[in-house]
Design goal:
The chain starts with a helix and ends with a helix. The longest helix is centred in the last third of the chain and has 31 residues. The chain is globular. The protein is built from 23 helices and no strands. The chain has one domain. Helix 8 packs across helix 21. Helix content is about 75%, strand content about 0%. With about 425 residues, the chain is mostly helical. InterPro entries: DctM, TRAP_DctM. Belongs to the TRAP transporter large permease family. This is TRAP transporter large permease protein. It is a multi-pass membrane protein.
Length: about 425
């Protein structure tokens, strides 16, 4: 091992230490990349300015702030309530149906927001008090909202799919289509877990309603504006009317006009606050993406991802063993690192392994995102747990203690998605 290799290894360890102690991720990536360039003697210092700028000067990436804004618009208006009512009409007659309605509401809301935290907060505000009133344990009700929020980045349109597409040069449009059936499967697995919990704990028995096709039709009509949003977005993309990036602008315009002029859930006075909130979130994510591309390029030149891929393939674990090892890695990483950061850092390492296993990049992307999204409900990070705690008033540890049945449901779904490519590639 050369001195340069030893230096790069030391830098990598220092980067992990700085992440653990809480240094901002974009600084860790930027300074780590600079140190590797100097120590390894690759590239010129000029690349520190050129690559990050080129990374954010990306047409596809423009969709990110727009979908963030879309989620803020919907969560502040009335579309979310209508979608939740539709979920209750569809599933409220089953044992544990009100909990399933929460997951259903998250599923429908995900089709317009593209954000997990917006999904959790918007649906949680509506459904947690209702579940508690009908006999559900409050920490478990909050856990349901937190786990349902995971669908926010699987059901298209998805902010995380956009990030994955940019980092790996994969078609965002294909990723959107690929997320449809995995999203349905994840919702179904969580509904099954909720059904078993409610049967065992006898929660929500008095909340059951009688199924009514008429009521379902009425709620579907009331939720028509929310249901129309993903139809417009996806229909426009795949009919060639607009690109995935342009669809984000269409989503903003559509949801804003509906909430202000039709449902009256928002006023024009609320728009500046929405723009500021969305801008703050975008301002945090943008630098991370810029310096992560630089970090990935430096690692590629040093052939670190290729070496790791060769090492993992040479262990002769086989396809199944390697996929399960990747899944275990993602679960652990998801416990400590935010999903966008995980994708940005890990993809230069894991993509060569996926290609060596002959996994389609679209299928691999769906598997990666579905597995990492479980990190939204696992301590110590678990951003959805914090969001559910904020809207319910339930302490974070109490929600985390109730999350494990839903965690197992999501794990089962992620495993099926990993080994059944058709779920992600059905449109080909």
């Amino acid at each position: 091992m050369t001195d340069a290799h030893i230096g790069v290894a030391v830098i990598a360890i220092l980067m992990i230490v700085h992440l653990v102690i809480g240094l901002p991720l974009f600084l860790v990536l930027g300074l780590g990349s600079l140190a590797m360039i100097v120590v390894a003697g690759v590239y010129s210092i000029d690349i520190i300015g050129q690559v990050p700028f080129t990374a954010v000067d990306n047409w596809a990436l423009l969709a990110m702030p727009l979908f963030i804004l879309t989620g803020d618009i919907i969560s502040g208006g009335r579309i979310a309530k209508a979608l939740t009512d539709l979920g209750e009409a569809l599933l409220g007659w089953v044992h544990g149906g009100l909990g399933m309605s929460t997951i259903g509401g998250c599923f429908f809301f995900a089709g317009t927001s593209g954000s997990n935290s917006a999904d959790t907060a918007a649906i949680g505000k509506i459904m947690i008090p209702s579940m508690v009133e009908k006999g559900y344990d409050k920490p478990y009700a909050a856990a349901l909202a937190a786990s349902g929020g995971c669908l926010g980045i699987i059901v298209p349109p998805s902010l995380i799919f956009i990030i994955y597409g940019v980092v790996t040069s994969t078609s965002v449009g294909d990723l959107f289509l690929a997320g449809v059936f995995p999203g349905v499967l994840m919702a179904a697995c969580m509904c099954l877990a909720n059904y078993l919990v409610c049967r065992y704990m006898k929660w929500g028995v008095q909340a059951r309603t009688t199924f009514s096709a008429r009521r379902l039709g009425e709620k579907a009509w009331a939720a028509r504006y929310g249901l129309l949003a993903p139809a417009i977005i996806l229909g426009g993309i795949y009919s060639g009317i607009f690109t995935p990036t342009e669809s984000a602008a269409v989503a903003v315009a559509y949801c804003l006009l509906v909430e202000i002029l039709v449902t009256r859930g928002l006023s024009w006075k609320a728009v500046p606050d929405l723009l500021i909130r969305s801008g703050n979130i975008t301002g945090m994510i943008g630098p991370i993406i810029a310096f992560s591309i630089l970090f990935g390029e430096v690692m590629s030149v040093l052939r670190i991802p290729d070496a790791l891929a060769e090492a993992m393939i040479s262990t002769e674990m086989g396809f199944a063993g390697t996929v399960l090892a990747i899944m275990a890695l993602l679960i652990v990483v998801g416990c400590f690192m935010e999903t966008i950061a995980s994708i940005i850092i890990l993809m230069p390492i894991l993509m060569p392994i996926a290609l060596a296993l002959h996994m389609d990049p679209v299928h691999f992307g769906v598997f990666i995102v579905c597995t990492l999204t479980i990190g939204f409900i696992t301590p110590p990070v678990g951003i959805n747990l914090f969001a559910a705690s904020a809207v319910s008033g339930v302490p974070y540890p109490a929600i985390a203690a109730r999350i494990w049945p839903l965690f197992l449901g999501l794990m089962a779904a992620a495993t099926i998605i990993a080994f059944v490519p058709w779920l992600s590639l059905w449109f080909r």
